[in-house]
Structure formats: structure tokens, C-alpha cells
Amino acid sequence: MFEFNPEKHYPKETxxxxxxxxxxxxxxxxxxxxxxxxxxxxxxxxxxxxxxxxEIIDLIRVYKAAWVVYNHNISYVKPAMVGEWVRIMSxxxxxxxxxxxxxxxxxxxxxxxxxxxxWSTMRYVTLAEGKSTDHSGAVNDFLKATSFQLDxxxxxxxxxxxxxxxEIEKK
Length: 171
Fold this sequence. Notes:
Distance between the termini: 36 Å
Shape: globular
Low-confidence stretches: none
Strand order of the largest sheet: 1-3-4-5-2
Radius of gyration: 17 Å
Structural class: alpha+beta
Strand content: 25-35%
């Protein structure tokens, strides 16, 4: 279970290094569009326990609630190719009392080329009724400690793609 420690620095972003597998690619050797989701979700699932000492299933068991995706917004910038090593970063870009927006993005291995950006918006719902519920307890602590809290009210994914490309080019 996540236990907030005010003395500890919590990284706001996860990062994984993975290779693009042959079985996940189309005949043009590009990563299949639908497979980006698997790569993004698997990378975050691997990194959250390492960085924060939290297995999401523990939150689900204790609070009898889970996040359910209700919107994906993806922008394919450059293809990921079979056999290529890539970096996958993810972060909670924003949250409120019952919703989170997780941003995932993929770059080449040297982090000089943006490949894809995904925004997944998720609602926190009870397991029993499937109805929206508020974040509470350790869930709130986790979100406060790890979220960017970017003002997303006036930003669209295309704007974010431009921002990320500019950040990558500066490095």
C-alpha cells in the first residue's frame, strides 16, 4: 500500500526501455497501432511498483474501486520499428476528485525523436456498482505525490505533442 512520506521525493514520471517485437508489427515493420496501448500500459504497470512501492491491485482491494478508461486520445508522430529500442515515459498529468489523465509517450532510445503520445482519461468507479466515486485515503496521497497537475483546461493533445517535441529537441 502507498504510504506518503513528506521527506521523500516522488518522481513524477516513469520510464522504461523496451524493444519492439516482431510479432507486434505490421507487414511494413511498423509497430501495429493497437499494440502501442499494450506497450504503454505494460511499461507503467512495471514501473509504478518500482518507483512508488505500490501495486495498484492493493488500492483496488482496499478501496473497492478502480480507474476505468473512458477516453483515449493518441497521436502517432513517427513509427516505432521492429527490433528498435524505445523509451516509454508515463505520468499522471492531471487529476480531480474522481478522474485522472495519464500521459504516455514514446521516444527513440536516445530520446531525440518523439514517436507517439497517448492521453488516457479514467474515472474512478466502485467495483460493486460501477458508479463514479471520489478518490480517498492512500489514493489521494498517491495522486498528490506523483501528479504533475498541469492545467489541461486549454491544452489539446496536438499542443502537447508540440511541447514534447520542443523539450526533446532541447536535450
